[in-house]
Amino acid sequence: MRALLLRDLRLAVRAGGGFGLGLAFFLIVVVLVPFGLGPDRALLSSIAPGMLWVAALLAALLTLDRLFALDHEDGALPLLATAPLPLEGLVAAKAAAHWLTTGLPLTLAAPLLGPLLALPPGAWPWLLASLAIGTPALSLIGTFGAALTIGIRRGGLLLSLIVLPLYVPTLIFGAEMARRGAAGLPIGAALPMLAALTLGCLALLPFAAAAALRVNLR
Amino acid sequence: MSLWEYANPKKFTETVTPLIPWVLGLAAICLVASLIWGVFFTPEDYRQGATVKIIYLHVPSALMAINAWFMMLVASLIWLVRRHHVSALAAKAAAPVGMVMVLIAIATGAIWGKPMWGTYWAWDPRLTSFLILFLFYLGYMALWAAVDDADTAADLTSVLCIVGSVFAVLSRYAVLFWNQGLHQGASLSLDAEEHVADVFYYPLLVSIAGFVLLFLGLVLLRTRSEIALRRAAALDRRAEARAAATTGEPA
């Protein structure tokens, strides 16, 4: 499992792996928002936590279709499936690699982009925490979606149609936590709910994704 | 004699074909009766005026929109456990019907909302949940359409339906947490605390019966045509294989 994780990380970081792509996309979305809404600082600062969350979500979505597709195309996936590692473990390793190459960099980059959207200074620890807790759920849900659509040519659009509605609860709890933190309100149930969501996804979705992979590799 | 005998496509088709006109006819009678009763023979609400009468379309369609997804979930589970093709096809057949029910509920709600709430749309928890449910239906149908192999498609959509159900329930509660509601409480519930008045209640029940029958009839009809399509595709494949065998070319 560790070997697989390291292999995926190495593939992602090297040329053509799309490691920087998600980050660059995140940056571009954040830059485009003020162009669309005008440079009013009060408006921007009130929407900053939510906008950063939506941008992170879209950036995570962007890199999903290459999660299994490259291995599927060059025939590595059936080999990986016959390895002694159970398919659930393979899925978990893939999701972990996806999180380490998109979720984690996005989380670390979000506070740096905060000033662009006039994020209040007290808000960035909450934003950082909510993204750190919430993005693993995004990677796991995305892995499930990618496993479902693996056999479909040009499945990227379908993938987003399937995955984005599944992202709704994560987005709500994550953005709510960041928003409340930014406004100095008590966090309330948002933090435990977000954590519960991530842990639940971690516990259950690898099985669903592995089931989908088994069907697709049959 | 068990229920599972009807999982045989031939037996299913033979049983269902004479039933469909009756079910749809009964649905039409219920709907026409309840709408005439509801629209012309019930009083206007003291606050909502005549707009209250949209309840006879709005509540049953919303009810069926959720129950259709639930039926798809049950059918998907039956497919995954017992591998009955009719079950998978019934889930496939129910999805567009359920999606239209969502659309009817949202559209009637919007039409009612404009005079009553002053807006067609509000980001109210119930409204938002229905929009999300609509997206789930779209994703489910798109996945059916995208996968070529029928059994693979049935398996994948079943898995999606189960995971989607969990996330649909999660979204429902997440949305409640996210925004306060504008929508009134339940129109129908077993405890009589929250309840519409009896004058509206009885025609509403007839209308709900009509919608249930309509849903049932449409799903049976669509399942039957899916079975026929599947059989036609199998016959096509067989004919092609035979043609290839006689000409000596590999299929």
UniProtKB/TrEMBL annotation, chain A:
What cellular component terms from Gene Ontology apply here? plasma membrane
The answer, when asked if Iron-sulfur is one of the entry's keywords, is no
In the UniProt record, does the keyword Cell inner membrane occur?
A: yes
Instruction: Kindly give the membrane topology term recorded for this protein.
Output: Multi-pass membrane protein
Entry's transmembrane regions: 12-37, 43-64, 124-150, 157-175, 187-213
Q: Where is the signal peptide?
A: none
Keyword annotations of the record: Cell inner membrane, Cell membrane, Cytochrome c-type biogenesis, Membrane, Transmembrane, Transmembrane helix, Transport
Query: Which domain of life does the protein's organism represent?
Result: Bacteria
* MF terms in GO: heme transmembrane transporter activity
Q: What's one GO BP annotation on this UniProt entry?
A: cytochrome c biosynthetic process
Task: Report the subcellular localization.
Answer: Cell inner membrane
Q: What does this protein do?
A: Required for the export of heme to the periplasm for the biogenesis of c-type cytochromes.
Q: Which NCBIfam families match?
A: ccmB (TIGR01190)
Q: Give the family from UniProt.
A: Belongs to the CcmB/CycW/HelB family.
Protein name stated in the entry: Heme exporter protein B
What species is given as this protein's source?
A: Pseudoroseicyclus tamaricis
TrEMBL record, chain B:
Primary localization class, coarse: membrane
Keyword check for Cell wall biogenesis/degradation: no
What's the gene?
ccsA
GO terms, biological process: cytochrome complex assembly
| Keywords for the protein's UniProt record, in alphabetical order | Cell inner membrane, Cell membrane, Cytochrome c-type biogenesis, Membrane, Transmembrane, Transmembrane helix, Transport
* Topological category with respect to the lipid bilayer: Multi-pass membrane protein
Xref: PANTHER family: CYTOCHROME B_B6 PROTEIN-RELATED, HEME EXPORTER PROTEIN C
Subcellular location, in the record's words?
Answer: Cell inner membrane; Membrane
Chain ranges passing through the membrane? 20-41, 61-81, 93-112, 127-147, 159-179, 199-221
GO CC annotation: plasma membrane
Q: Which organism is it from?
A: Pseudoroseicyclus tamaricis
Q: Does the keyword Membrane apply?
A: yes
Q: What is this protein called?
A: Heme exporter protein C
Family of this protein: Belongs to the CcmC/CycZ/HelC family.
The uppermost taxa in this organism's lineage are: Bacteria, Pseudomonadati, Pseudomonadota, Alphaproteobacteria, Rhodobacterales
**Cytochrome c assembly protein domain boundaries:** 24-183
GO MF annotations, alphabetized = heme binding; heme transmembrane transporter activity
What's one Pfam family here? Cytochrom_C_asm
Biological role: Required for the export of heme to the periplasm for the biogenesis of c-type cytochromes.
